[in-house]
């Protein structure tokens, strides 16, 4: 069974996709940028601020589906510059403090003004 998830507390999708799709016990969260849900604009002047906003948006989507960060099993991180890796990790380590999910981090060309994009997969037993 497949269910599309949309959260009113996360930025509206800017294309033909859902915030997340739940398939059985798995939740696949679409890539999130540092977009303020109220303004619809990318916010945050540095990687730390953008990382915090990205994970706030992801948290809203997880919550809408009845999941939490504790359920996250895989994280894909796209940084506009790998030079931001250490600063990103400072914020990331406050979100995932134990039972760390698997993770991939790559450098990628993102939308103008975006320093980071993150998607996650969560699972419940």
From TrEMBL:
<dbReference type="InterPro" id="IPR006175">
    <property type="entry name" value="YjgF/YER057c/UK114"/>
</dbReference>
<dbReference type="InterPro" id="IPR035959">
    <property type="entry name" value="RutC-like_sf"/>
</dbReference>
<dbReference type="GO" id="GO:0005829">
    <property type="term" value="C:cytosol"/>
</dbReference>
<protein>
    <submittedName>
        <fullName>Endoribonuclease L-PSP</fullName>
    </submittedName>
</protein>
<comment type="similarity">
    <text>Belongs to the RutC family.</text>
</comment>
<dbReference type="InterPro" id="IPR006056">
    <property type="entry name" value="RidA"/>
</dbReference>
<dbReference type="GO" id="GO:0019239">
    <property type="term" value="F:deaminase activity"/>
</dbReference>
<dbReference type="Pfam" id="PF01042">
    <property type="entry name" value="Ribonuc_L-PSP"/>
</dbReference>
């Amino acid at each position: 069974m497949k269910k599309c998830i949309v959260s009113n507390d996360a930025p509206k999708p800017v294309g033909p996709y859902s915030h997340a799709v739940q398939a059985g016990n798995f939740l696949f969260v679409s890539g999130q940028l540092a977009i303020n849900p109220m303004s619809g604009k990318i916010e945050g002047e540095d990687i730390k601020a953008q990382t915090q906003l990205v994970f706030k948006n992801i948290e809203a989507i997880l919550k809408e589906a009845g999941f939490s960060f504790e359920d996250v099993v895989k994280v894909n991180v796209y940084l506009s510059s790998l030079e931001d890796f250490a600063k990103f990790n400072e914020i990331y380590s406050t979100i995932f403090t134990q039972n760390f999910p698997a993770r991939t981090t790559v450098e990628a060309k993102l939308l103008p003004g975006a320093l980071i994009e993150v998607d996650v997969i969560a699972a419940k037993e």
